[in-house]
Amino acid sequence: MIALTQEATTAVKAAMMRAGRTYGGLRIMVTSGGCAGYKYILGLDAEPHADDAVIEAQGIKLFIDPESQPVLDGMQIGFVESIEGSGFTFDNPNVASKCGCGKSFC
Asked: Which end of the chain is more exposed for a tag (fewer CB within 10 A), N or C?
């Protein structure tokens, strides 16, 4: 199960409105890359792929591919705004270590 904080929910809904999408959901993936080995990829998607898991969190549909599912299980996605910038945060119990930026992990 993946959870979204209220701040992340608000940010996703705002992005959907800016994109003119009142349907679809948020695709969450893990891919090779980043300074620690793996990184998160988030983006709006109109519909799930045939093999995606579809989870609803805070009224947002989350689309997760089969390879990413075990790595993302139990994760909480947040959103912060500060002077340094704004962005999503990831609290993932499956991560052994992460880089300083918090976007890459192993």
From this structure: N
Choose among 53, 103, 45, 98: nearest CA to 77: 103
For the entire predicted model, the pTM comes to 0.88
Number of domains in the chain: 1
d(CA 7, CA 24): 19
CATH number of the domain that residue 10 is part of? 2.60.300.12
Tokens of 67: 């390879």
Contact (Cβ atoms closer than 8 angstroms) between residue 24 and residue 95: no
Question: Which are the contacts of 100, defined by CB distance < 8 A and separation ≥ 6?
Answer: none
What is the dihedral sign for C-alpha 22, 28, 32, 34? positive
